[in-house]
Amino acid sequence: MLHVSTRGEYGVRVMIDLARHYRIGLRSLTDISLAEGLPVQYLEQLIKRLREAELVSSTRGAHGGYRLSRPPDEIRMSEVLRTLEGPIGLYSCVADDGVSVACDWDRLNHCSTRLLWSRLRSAIILTLDTMTLAELVPAETADGPAAAIVAAETN
Amino acid sequence: MLHVSTRGEYGVRVMIDLARHYRIGLRSLTDISLAEGLPVQYLEQLIKRLREAELVSSTRGAHGGYRLSRPPDEIRMSEVLRTLEGPIGLYSCVADDGVSVACDWDRLNHCSTRLLWSRLRSAIILTLDTMTLAELVPAETADGPAAAIVAAETN
DNA sequence: CGCTATTCCGACTAATTCGCTCAGATATAC
DNA sequence: GTATATCTGAGCGAATTAGTCGGAATAGCG
Lengths: 155, 155
Prior knowledge:
Chain A has 155 residues and is mainly alpha-helical. Chain A contains six helices and two strands.
């Protein structure tokens, strides 16, 4: 249950890649695609959302590419995932902002499951709100050939 | 994102219904279906899982039905949702038990998203582990004359 | 016994979502 | 003006979801 689709997984991966290159300059999708082993044309769809949410900005044309609109430590993972996968709500009667919405069950009797989804949602939002992109970027990964291999263990 | 399917929603709802009737006796699926406004034949599929996981027990034949195998306060919501929707894992490289599994990304470079899914999973499991069916049963919600007595003595 | 209420079981299906691919249009450095 | 990019929309096969359908097995009751 509660599984994240490749939109979320790939999208976060793209954001991490951009975070690693934040101070270096523009990064093209084909480079990201090669580095991460993901299909370019699929990434185009994903990064479109990220651009529209102004999490990344783009430069068109030759030697163009993408970069983060803000420093990695100012981008919360909740923003990223909301952008990629839509509002964080487990069931219709608890909206993303935590507000209880009247649902079909309220007509019949009180919506008995609302407390469950509400608590679960709070736990998820809290976790994602207190986590930034910067935490997912290995500190010493300064993009050399061997840099990726040296990536620190984080578990 | 992270939305729960009707399997989870309906299944939890069935469990809550059974919890409300825990001390009364057997409860048939058609009764549950009418009370909760859910399609019987779909519920049959769901309750099959719950039975196989020994969360509910059944009695066949006329005047048969279902009941919880354990008192509501001994049934954790994590068990219920795992049974209904499968293992609680957000992405393939973090299993339900929290163990990190080698994934495709480890070949390329360190799996950069693992920390994210790992933390999120922990928050979800913690929430579900510390919540029991009993917490979702409204105290005064009881139908039938015998139910009022139950409500009075259990709360 | 026969009738009825109930659980049990497997197959089928329509609609939706997922994970892409394809074919281009548009913009910019050189 | 050409190569390199970002953009855009459409399509598409596989999987999942949310059920339905049809019937078999079991048990109480008169």
